[in-house]
Design brief:
Family: Belongs to the short-chain dehydrogenases/reductases (SDR) family.
Largest sheet: 7 strands, parallel
Protein name: Short-chain dehydrogenase
CATH superfamily: NAD(P)-binding Rossmann-like Domain
GO molecular function: oxidoreductase activity
Strand order of the largest sheet: 3-2-1-4-5-6-7
CATH topology: Rossmann fold
Shape: globular
Number of strands: 7
Pfam families: adh_short
Structural class: alpha/beta
Strand content: 5-15%
CATH architecture: 3-Layer(aba) Sandwich
Helix content: 25-40%
Distance between the termini: 33 Å
InterPro entries: NAD(P)-bd_dom_sf, Sc_DH/Rdtase_CS, SDR_fam
CATH class: Alpha Beta
C-alpha cells in the first residue's frame, strides 16, 4: 500500500514518533491525516486533523472511528513506558496492568473498531508500532517488554486473520527512538523521522515486518542461534 492518496489515522500523534508519522504522511501526499490524541487542545499542524481518542476508553475509540470512517491506513502508535527496579519489583503487577491496558489492549481495541472500515476499502493497511524489547532482556523495562511481546503476538495473529479481507498488516520493530518517551535513558537512539521513512517504504513494498534500526536487525537475526539475543544480547546492545 502506498501512503500517497491514503487517509491515515495515527494514535498517539500529538508528539514524538506519532507526530513524525503524521508529518511524513502529509509529505508523501496522503489525502487526509488524522492525528489521534487524548487532548487536542493547542494542537496546530498544517494539514493534520486532530481527533480525540484515548486507547483505554472504548467510547472515545468508537467516536474516533465514526468520525474517521474514510481511513485506509491505521497506525497503532500510542504507547507508554516506565522504569521499575526489575521483574520482581513491588510494583511490577501494577505497572504491568497499566502497560498492557495501553500497549496491548489499546491496539486490540483500536484495531477492532477500525477493522470494518478498513476491510470495506479496496486498499487498506495497519501499522503496529512494536519494539526490539521483545528480544532484549532489560529488567528495568520488564512490564513494558511483556506488553510489547503481547502486541507482537497479536500483530502476527491479526495479520494472518486479515489476509483474506485484503488488509495489509505491518509490524514495526525498533529500539530506542529519540522522543519524550525515552527522555532520561542514556542509550543510542534512532531518529523518529528515519524510522517513519523506513516504515512507510516497507509498507509500499508490501512487507509484513520492518526492523528500523541496526540493533533491532541484529537481535532479530539471532533468534535461530543456539544462544539467541534474548538469552545473551550481542555485545553493544
Amino acid at each position: 500500500m502506498d501512503v500517497k492518496n491514503a487517509t491515515v489515522f495515527i494514535t498517539g500523534a500529538n508528539r514524538g514518533l506519532g507526530l513524525a508519522f503524521a508529518r511524513e504522511a502529509r509529505r508523501r501526499g496522503a489525502t487526509k491525516v488524522y492525528a489521534g490524541m487524548r487532548n487536542t487542545n493547542g494542537f496546530e499542524e498544517p494539514g493534520i486533523v486532530p481527533v480525540r481518542i484515548d486507547v483505554t476508553d472504548t467510547a472515545s475509540i468508537a467516536a474516533a472511528a465514526e468520525l474517521a470512517a474514510d481511513t485506509t491506513l491505521l497506525v497503532n502508535n500510542a504507547g507508554i513506558a516506565a522504569l521499575i527496579d526489575g521483574p520482581l519489583a513491588h510494583d511490577v503487577e501494577a505497572q504491568s496492568a497499566r502497560m498492557f491496558d495501553t500497549n496491548y489492549y489499546g491496539i486490540v481495541r483500536v484495531t477492532k473498531a477500525f477493522e470494518p472500515i478498513l476491510a470495506a476499502k479496496p486498499d487498506a493497511a495497519i501499522i503496529n508500532v512494536l519494539s526490539d524489547i521483545v528480544w532484549l532482556p532489560r529488567p528495568y523495562l520488564a512490564p513494558y517488554a511483556a506488553s510489547k511481546a503481547a502486541a507482537w503476538s497479536y500483530t502476527n495473529q491479526v495479520r494472518f486473520h486479515l489476509q483474506a479481507r485484503g488488509v495489509q498488516v505491518l509490524g514495526l520493530h525498533v529500539g530506542f527512538v529519540d522522543t519524550d518517551l525515552t527522555d532520561g535513558i542514556d542509550v543510542p537512539k534512532a531518529s523518529p523521522e528515519d524510522v517513519v521513512r523506513q516504515t512507510y517504504d516497507a509498507l509500499t513494498a508490501g512487507k509484513s515486518e520492518i526492523m528500523a534500526d541496526k540493533g533491532t536487525a541484529i537481535l532479530k537475526s539471532t533468534l535461530a542461534a543456539e544462544v539467541p539475543g534474548y538469552i545473551t544480547p550481542p555485545v553493544g546492545l
